[in-house]
Each structure stands twice: as C-alpha cells, then as structure tokens.
Design brief:
A hairpin with a 6-residue loop joins β4 and β5. This protein has about 190 residues and is of the alpha+beta class. The protein has 2 domains: about 15-115, Zincin-like, CATH 3.30.2010; about 135-194, no CATH class. Helices cover about 35% and strands about 15% of the residues. It is elongated. Strands 1-3-2 form a 3-stranded mixed beta sheet, covered by helices on one side. Strands 5-4-6 form a 3-stranded antiparallel beta sheet, covered by helices on one side. The protein has 5 helices and 6 strands; from the N terminus they run αβββαααβββα.
Length: about 190
C-alpha cells in the first residue's frame, strides 16, 4: 500500500470533516520528523478510516500502517498529532523489539515523552453518538436430534432441554412481539416437519 493512500467512497477519505483535519502528506512529514527524533528509519502508511467508531487511531503492525478516525478527531483537532504519535510509537516499538514488550510499556512511554506527550493508554475524547447502536434480539434454537426448540434473549452455547445435545440451527429476530411471533412460527414449522 502506498503511503497515505486510501480506498474510500468519497474523493477525500477524511470525508466532510476535511477542513478540520491535516492532509495525509502533512501527517507523513510530521511522522518523519518524529522518526528522526526517535532515531528510527521506518517506512509507514497513514490513512483516515471513516469506518472507525470510538477508537481515535489504530496501528497495524505487520502492514506498518496507521489508521485515524476522522469523525472523532474532527471533534478534537487538537488531539490529531498526539493520536498520530501514539500509533507511530507502537510501530517503532514493534520494529525494535517485536512482540516481546507490552504495547504501552516503558519503551512506548519513553517514545511518547520524547515526542512531548503524556504517555496515556486511552484517549479521553467525547465519543457521544459515534458508537454502534446495540440492537436487542431473540434467538431461536432448533434441535437437530429431536423436535425440541427454545427461545432465549442472549446467544449462548445452549443445550436442548429435551435431549441435552447442542442445537442444530439458530435463528435471530428483533426483540419485539413481531420478532418473537416470527420465531415461534419457524419453531412450529420445524416441529411439524420432524
């Protein structure tokens, strides 16, 4: 992957937040300055990833790429450079020490201090409205060994109450009266066919 390239549905991967965020080329230049300060010769890529929800950034160690959350960072543009340095420090630590050190261990913390930032494991930015909305479901379990069936609120590895074997099929519907009725219809058809 070329440095800073990104596949996106919009011409600018930063999306409508573009005016608040630095260009990828600016981040690459900032990253090269940090690497010079850290005495590292690392090649890396950067992209804005609009699919990210509440994470500010992510370091992809094997690909040596940094993804940044444009929606979250547009709300907090003062945090872009710190987030970028945080993820770049992960790449440098991985290249120098491999997986033998803790992700936010003393090696990573020293790089953050050298960059002029407080070594903080998690961001404290407001993520209101960026997280996934949790949908609630009913789960229907159909036994493949007997005509047994049961409905539960949570998906767990259940056993058939009749024969104590694992279920053969699992169906899901919204946790609403209509969803429950749909699952009961499926269960009755299964019992009639068995």
């Amino acid at each position: 992957m070329a440095s800073g390239s990104s596949k996106s549905r919009t011409p600018d991967a930063r999306g409508p937040e573009a005016e608040f965020l630095p260009e990828v080329a600016e981040l690459l230049a900032y990253g090269r300055a940090l690497l010079a300060e850290w005495k590292s010769e690392l090649s890396f890529g950067v992209r804005y990833n609009r699919r990210m929800r509440t994470r500010a950034g992510a370091a992809w160690l094997r690909e040596r790429r940094i993804d940044l959350n444009p929606r979250l960072l547009a709300r907090h543009p003062e945090q872009v450079h710190e987030t970028f340095a945080h993820e770049l420090a992960h790449l440098v630590v991985f290249v120098r020490f491999g997986r033998d050190v803790r992700p936010h261990g003393c090696e990573w913390q020293q790089l953050m201090l050298d960059a002029g930032f407080e070594p903080s494991r998690c961001h404290r930015m407001d993520v209101t409205g960026l997280g996934r909305k949790k949908r609630k479901y009913w789960f229907l379990y159909l036994c493949r060994h007997c005509p047994g069936w049961w409905i539960q609120r949570h998906r767990v590895a259940s056993r058939c109450p009749d024969c104590a074997r694992r279920p053969g099929w699992v169906y899901r519907a919204d946790r609403s009266p209509a969803g429950h009725r749909r699952l009961v219809r499926i269960a009755r058809a299964h019992a009639a066919a068995s």
